[in-house]
Write a structure and sequence with these properties.
Blueprint (H helix, E strand, L loop, with lengths): L6 E14 L2 E14 L3 E5 L6 H8 L7 E6 L2 E2 L5 H7 L3 E4 L13 H11 L5 H14 L16 H13 L5 E5 L7 H18 L2 E6 L2 H7 L2 E6 L2 E7 H6 L4 H9 L8 H9 L23 H5 L5 E2 L5 E2 L12
Parallel strand pairs: 3-8, 3-9, 6-7, 7-8
Antiparallel strand pairs: 1-2, 1-4, 4-5, 9-10, 10-12, 11-12
Helix pairs in contact: 3-4, 3-5, 4-5
């Protein structure tokens, strides 16, 4: 975000189209973002906004139809198989469901040591020592080594998943709805753990969430996604205190910030409004009181407005009320 920040990953003009017999879905439409070393970017949006597709492309699990993705100076799509395998040491993922992402037949020790074994790191004893240290780092104990996922709580399983993600000492961790399946009290503990680990290890996070409360707590920068586009992007303060896109404002005004989760606000707004139109014009126009009355919202292609060095939006008629005089 800052010109002085070291960029460790970036997406530039990335689009992803899924085609079927019934037509095509533009899951990502000219999406661009950067990840700065030691910082957290939150991709926020409703189901179907494209945030998970963006994460999969960054992880190298899917390929864009157009655009360039770079990780640590290397362009995805141009790497050979072995180069891509080695790069995966540097970027790991923690997924949503703490139970389904762990092999139920394996012990905690086997699960956490799996990446070390895959890359031939150390011998059995040194791996065990490293696993114990990783468990301690995520708030678990040596006694958990021989347990299996069904013997653990949801929060403990997610801590195991975090330990596994850290086993190869990555520089980037993608957190795909990593706390949304947890109880509120456990969620807070895991979020605090993630912040602590980031500070201790200098980790860079891409945080995928539909929960604006979580984004506010975790993120240095927030990108709000709607129907495959980033409609607003800025620092946490930019997005929460000086929102310019009507979609962002609608989400923030639905529920007070102190509410533990804002995901219901997103669902309610989505379900109560008609589907947007298609094409290069504003996809939000049929949900926006301003867009319904402006001809350019219906017919003119959108161009990103760069309000400040940290704040941009995709709107012909941005919200004005919060702009300082």
């Amino acid at each position: 975000m800052s010109s002085h920040s070291e960029i460790v990953a970036s997406a530039n003009g990335v689009s992803r189209i899924f085609r079927s017999k019934t037509g095509e879905v533009r899951a990502l439409d000219n999406v661009s973002f950067t990840l700065s070393k030691g910082k957290t970017l939150a991709l926020v949006g409703e189901s179907g906004s494209g945030k998970t597709t963006a994460a999969r492309i960054l992880l190298g699990l899917d390929n864009p139809n157009s655009g360039i993705v770079e990780i640590l100076g290397r362009v995805l799509g141009s790497l050979k198989h072995e180069e891509m395998r080695l790069l995966r040491r540097e970027i790991q993922v923690v997924q949503q469901d703490p139970f389904s992402q762990l092999n139920r037949r394996h012990s905690v020790e086997r699960i956490v040591s799996g990446p070390l074994m895959a890359f031939g790191v150390g011998d059995k004893e040194s791996r065990r020592t490293q696993v114990i240290a990783l468990l301690e780092a995520v708030g678990l104990e040596k006694e958990h080594l021989k347990r299996r996922p069904h013997e653990l709580s949801g929060g403990q399983c997610q801590r195991v998943a975090i330990a596994r993600a850290l086993a190869l000492d990555p520089k980037i961790v993608v957190l795909d709805e990593a706390v949304s399946a947890l109880d509120v009290s456990v969620r807070a503990q895991v979020l605090n753990l993630l912040r602590k680990l980031q500070q201790e290890r200098g980790l860079t996070y891409l945080f995928i969430t539909h929960d604006l409360g979580v984004a506010h707590y975790m993120a240095d920068e927030i990108a709000v996604m709607f129907r495959g586009r980033i409609v607003e992007r800025g620092s946490r303060e930019d997005v929460f205190e000086n929102s310019r896109h009507h979609y962002t404002v609608g989400l923030l005004s639905s529920v007070p910030l102190a509410t533990p989760t804002l995901s219901k606000a997103i669902r309610d707004q989505v379900q109560s409004l008609p589907s947007p139109g298609e094409g290069d014009a504003c996809l939000y126009r049929t949900r926006c009181t301003v867009g319904l009355t402006r001809e350019d919202c219906k017919s003119t292609s959108l161009v990103i407005t760069q309000g400040t060095s940290t704040h941009s939006w995709l709107c012909h008629s941005p919200v004005q009320d919060s702009i300082p005089a």
